[in-house]
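Hello Y.,

Per our agreement to keep a running log of every chain we model this quarter, I'm adding this entry. I've kept the format consistent with earlier entries: sequence first, then predicted structure.
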Amino acid sequence: MNFTLAGFDPAGDGFSDSSTENLTRIGDMAREFDVTLRALRFYEDKGLINPIRNGATRLYRISDRKRLHFVLLGRRVGFSLRDIKQMIDLYDPVGSNVRQLKVILEKSERQRGRLEKQREDLDKASVELDGLIESVRLKLAA
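Predicted structure for the entry above:
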């Protein structure tokens, strides 16, 4: 699944949704986002999504879908759940959300730097591994 910020509008309707139309059951939500039921319950326990509860039944609103989309994007790029929750919780349905956007930008730039460092480290490790493989092949051929 390719994640983008499409559908995430922190300055528009963002994660807020009081409508009960278009409710999705947990199984459908899990299939659509390719996550386990356990993952959805875990994200609920962490306060990242807030489905409507009717006994044991969980019904997800459009806002929950947007929040889950953002959670999965955040996880995919390496944000901690704590960082993701902080970014989501800064959303203000009646405000300009400048603070939220600044935090998202700051955390994203910092994470981009970490990922670039990891890429450099992986490239170096790959070159070293190639050397080891070649060395072992030469010894086996001798």
